[in-house]
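Record type: ASSEMBLY
Status: queued
Input:
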Amino acid sequence: MTQQTAELSPETVLEELKKNGVTHVVWLPDSETNWLYLLMQAEPTLDLITVSREGQAFSTAAGLAVGGAKPVILIQNTGLQESGDSMRGWVMGMHIPVVLMVGYRGYTRHGDNTDTAATYTEPFLNAYNIKYYLIENNDDAGRITRAFEEAEKAQGPVAVLVGDEFHGFNR
Amino acid sequence: MIHTEDMLKVFAKYRGNAVVIPGRGGRHWHTISDKPERDVPLGDPAMGGHGSFGLGFALARPNEKVILFDSEGDILMNMGALPTIAEKAPPNFYHFMLDNGVYATTGGQPVPNAQNIAYDVIAKGSGYPSTFSFDNLEDFTNNIEAILNAPGPVFVALKIHPEVENVPINQRIRWNPRSRDKVISDLQAEIGPRK
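Status: finished
Output:
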């Protein structure tokens, strides 16, 4: 039996964002992403836009995209679930291709969640018919690029669930 | 109190080449505007998001003057957008707000604390460097040119007459001849690719 020890490093995530031409990160801090925040803040090609409720991220991203910029939304699954109407109207209804990097609070690999934030995350995405990818370590990082490709193809949102919240992002 | 249509007719004289997001003023603006290809009438994709949409567009297009006619109901629904706009402070963003004190499209029920709220004060407290409040057309007319000639972001609260709708939503007359997709593709063709 092998034990998985690899982590998802914030450097890897940042590299994926840069590789995919992201210009703006519309985000609301979650409990485990501070290290990524510090890296993004120091990255001159990225403009960070901090919102105070996640629904705002979707309308902000729509404005950026209509203007020709390439936003990514970085939020937690709790806020994603708050954002349903804004996501529906401003992103899905306007055919905005955007990747949602979603901190998967409460996720456990064993499927034995005790946090309802995790319990309802995938059913929520399925209800909106949004495709999603799970990333847990650096080997999964290519799925971020795949999400960008899928968003472009679908002209809508695609989610990346960051299932490594409780160690790799919080060094 | 100001009539929205009268206000927009005055504004039109000073619009220049700005991109206009008419928001709740859209039904009047589409008969007044002489540059529909630079108008972004989106209807109501999801209430509360126009301010953030305007911010995003203004940041993506810093060389375009961007003018938004938001509403007080939208702002109340997403008041947290104001500090974000003020923090990013796009100098090309002009944020007007139509305040009729009611939810006009649902029959005219008052918004919370409609008679006592001061939106310009809230915008100022959120960090907008410049805010105004007008409750009559004459003052608006006397100030609009200077407001649009100064750098943004600016917040302008306008007390307007309610135009209450009581017709069921599926029986209302569609005033926007263009679909949302067409509005966006027309705009993007007009402003060209982002540099």
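Annotation: Chain A has a mean pLDDT of 90.
Annotation: The interface with chain B takes residues 23-24, 26, 47, 49-53, 55-69, 71, 85-86, 88-90, 93-95 of chain A (CB under 8 Å).
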